[in-house]
Specification:
The structure is a homodimer. By secondary structure, chain A is mainly alpha-helical. In chain A, 64% of the residues lie in helices and 3% in strands. Chain A has two domains: 145 residues, no CATH class; 353 residues, Neurolysin, domain 3 (Orthogonal Bundle), CATH 1.10.1370.
């Protein structure tokens, strides 16, 4: 069989695999946004069935042969084709290493785990969660034995969520970051400026929606190729080339969490809309990693959205939607509202400074758990001790402590660090963007955001999976990923806002 | 292999087939209700791919062997199981008879046909449509040679949409119907009462939606197992057990077309929600035919919804949503508004009397086309002549004449008669319901609609595909289907409204 013909055959199989995943995506979007409650059981069955078909397709003998055949003469392929072969090889290996029987057991325990976790959190009872969590940790350990990929067991988990991620890579990043964050936090906490009065008015959902749609469009989100809906947890999903969807939620008492959720999800959505359509349904046309994805959402949400320049442009639009909003509040004050820093219990509600302390805490705990230095039953004790030491806060109940996140109940150990990677990458990318573009602050202030998006398109979106995450960041910024740019950004930003 | 085990294996395969179709249904709902425009190409590809998988599954060697194996000892199976084997045998035979190559050719010509038709209708140019229509007729003729099932070529097409339907079955029904309809129409047209002043107010979409949701709920539609949305053409679809969706559209100038669309689609939806969940994803738990489905929608829309009793109950709810609506209009007048009869050009806008004349006209034309008595190019001439003779109207342009319906552009010849069957079945069912329940008129007037739904559940919905359409109607009503009950219903209704 000629080279081109085997590549075509390979791509056909890859597209079948991706198509099944795209259908899963569409059904999952519908499940979270549209589906009536009584459709849940049938939908779960259908999604499980599709998972089976996807696994069947990626692990088939045919797929294995097609990959091996192409690998024999990799040099005949161009870079795009090579990316597809190597990425599918990686997925194929990972998928074939996991026995179908294990996946089934894991999936079932996940479902059970999420159910038990929800109850345990509601009842504020870690002991209720401990047995299934122990099972999930055991299953993750079993997964490690199948995938084995890295120096330590925890490395294998990290790599599963972010290709190439290791403890060795994270340690220096996180060490520098932790020290820097605590310094900044201490400086901020010494000022009094972080206490702001509550706004005493309501922000109708329809006006919030109109305002957020405007901002999302201004960012460059193409609503002919996407839509925005409501769900209990904001998320974004790409269903197909030309069909990327984001969601948000509304709180009539304050408009900021919705706005920044929309900017965050639009950032994700812009990445998806910027992937090259010509490579749709293949790795070359797919986002490279969770960490890089998070960099796109965070850059728009924080580096662009939580600035005085942003509010100089957007405050008039905001006032138009909310005519009762006090006219005395100026862009600097809006920016202060959007950047209130304070140690708090809940990760998803945390500010830019403390957020990453939440993540590093989870990272340290997970590392100990999988490298054999910590037992599941000791989790609440260790959590609370670390929290007291790092945040100066006494955790009063497990539901706002060790039980707050869903991730472990799904057996997703090693996922959290990708959030912080996203924050670091965002700051590093933004720093380079500022060097390469003329006056970014001025562009933000004038609503001239297209050049910012173009820069991201060229340096990140269009690359798909051509490079692994750290190489991609290095190519875009000229430097290996580090915590430096993020800490510099936080220092400059907060010293200005809080005057230290 | 034991009987039970082979039946289980068979059902597994059947469920896979149904599951793929259910996924197609979900994607198709999304396509019509949610999908952003630029998602269209990818969605079409995915739907075509799923069609291929469904065809593969139903025509597989495995499926054929499982069916044959069970057929050897049919008497070992209970009625539900027999229904599943026989119905899947029918689908298997039909699907295997059609070559994959033919299906592909047909599907492509359909897509092209719909595109050309839309343009031709817009440009009011039958000649633009004639070549592709000729192709579609040829393809339908080719389909007839594969399926061959019935005395005449047209019989094969009829049976494709309504199992067991033949020209011999329709001829006496339609002959009696046509004569009766023309008589009633003449009587109505002699009165002056059918001319009503236009309402000079607007009906906001949100109030129409609230009113229609109330009516749909009152009919018994379970919104925990369904939802209502907006689309350019109202439709209903069952996505899974516990997930049935209906759509409507809004016209701010008049609320009636939306209301009756919702009642119509709710009628379809109630049939789907009433199918036995225990037989989900198998023929036993599936609606039997288009004609029976239409009987459910029409019964709620017309026999129940277009009555004075209905308005006695609903007018206060209506007035609550539309406080500006003239208080002087009473239920009898509302009913007159809802029952205006007049010959007109467009089928989908036609009243209960003239609607079926539109259908019989199409039936006569299709019959001639496929039994070799009419050429595609003569269609406009024949259409206009018949229209003048039957409706007394001069067709001014093909877009309101022979080009008005989408069906032929999709190669759907033999589909139209199922609409009229639905109307006849609805009247026959309602007649029996009135005999068997105490005072149906009073129930309607008091909003006590549960017993009506229960009767339909018991006599139609729960039966799934246990009986073929005409047997099902006979079992429910004690009589073979005829035009009598429908004509009687029209005569009684319109003589009262129009006083003849």
């Amino acid at each position: 069989m000629g080279r081109n013909m085997s590549y075509e055959k390979f791509i056909d199989e890859v597209k079948t695999y991706s198509r099944i995943q795209a259908i899963q995506g569409q059904l999952s979007w519908d499940q979270q946004v549209m589906m009536p409650p009584n459709g849940a059981n049938a939908r779960a069955d259908t999604l499980a069935w599709l998972s089976g078909r996807a696994h069947e397709t990626i692990t088939s003998k045919k797929m294995g042969e097609l990959i091996s055949d192409l690998e024999k003469n990799l040099s005949d392929l161009d870079d795009d084709q090579k990316t597809n072969v190597l990425e599918i090889r990686r997925t194929f290996d990972k998928s074939t290493k996991l026995p179908a029987e294990f996946i089934e057991r894991f999936t079932k325990t996940q479902s059970k785990g999420m159910g038990v976790w929800a109850k345990a959190r509601k009842n504020d009872d870690f002991n209720m969660f401990a047995p299934i969590l122990t099972e999930l940790v055991e299953l993750a350990r079993e997964k490690i034995t199948y995938l084995e990929n890295g120096n330590t067991p925890y490395d294998t988990l990290l790599d599963d969520y972010e290709v190439g991620l290791t403890v060795d890579y994270l340690e220096p990043l996180f060490a520098e970051l932790k020290t820097g964050l605590i310094e900044i936090l201490n400086k901020i906490m010494k000022t009094k400026k972080h206490q702001l009065a509550k706004l005493d008015m309501t922000f109708p959902v329809s006006n919030q929606e109109a305002f957020c749609l405007k901002i999302s469009e201004q960012m460059g989100f193409d609503f002919n190729s996407g839509r925005m809906d409501t769900s209990s947890h904001p998320f974004s999903i790409s269903i197909a080339a030309g069909d990327t969807r984001i969601t948000t939620r509304y709180d009539e008492n304050e408009p900021f969490s919705c706005l920044y959720a929309v900017m965050h999800e639009t950032g994700h959505g812009l990445y998806e809309q910027g992937l090259p359509d010509e490579f749709a349904l293949t790795p070359r046309g797919t986002a490279i990693s969770l960490g890089v994805h998070e960099s796109q959402s965070r850059l728009w949400e924080n580096q662009i959205g939580r600035t005085e320049e942003f509010w100089k442009y957007c405050l008039p639009l905001f006032q138009k939607e909310f005519p009762e909003f006090p006219k005395s509040i100026d862009p600097a004050q809006m920016n202060l509202i959007a950047n209130q820093v304070e140690p708090s219990f809940i990760r998803v509600e945390a500010d830019e400074v403390t957020y990453n302390l939440h993540i590093i805490l989870r990272y340290e705990i997970e590392k100990k758990l999988f490298n054999g230095e910590l037992d599941v039953n000791d989790l609440p004790k260790v959590w609370n001790e670390m929290f007291k030491e790092w945040f100066g806060l006494d955790v009063k109940d497990d539901s706002t402590g060790v039980l707050q996140d869903i991730h472990w109940s799904m057996g997703a150990f090693g996922y959290f660090p990708t959030y912080t990677l996203g924050n670091l990458y965002a700051a590093q990318l933004f720093e380079t963007m500022k060097e390469e573009l003329d006056d970014v602050n001025n562009m933000i202030e004038e609503g001239n955001w297209n050049p910012l998006l173009d820069w991201l398109r060229k340096n990140i979106h269009e690359k798909g999976r051509l490079y692994n995450p750290s190489d991609l960041i290095k190519k875009a910024t000229g430097k290996i990923p580090s915590s430096g740019p993020f800490l510099k950004y936080l220092n400059e930003k907060y010293s200005k806002i809080y005057g230290f």
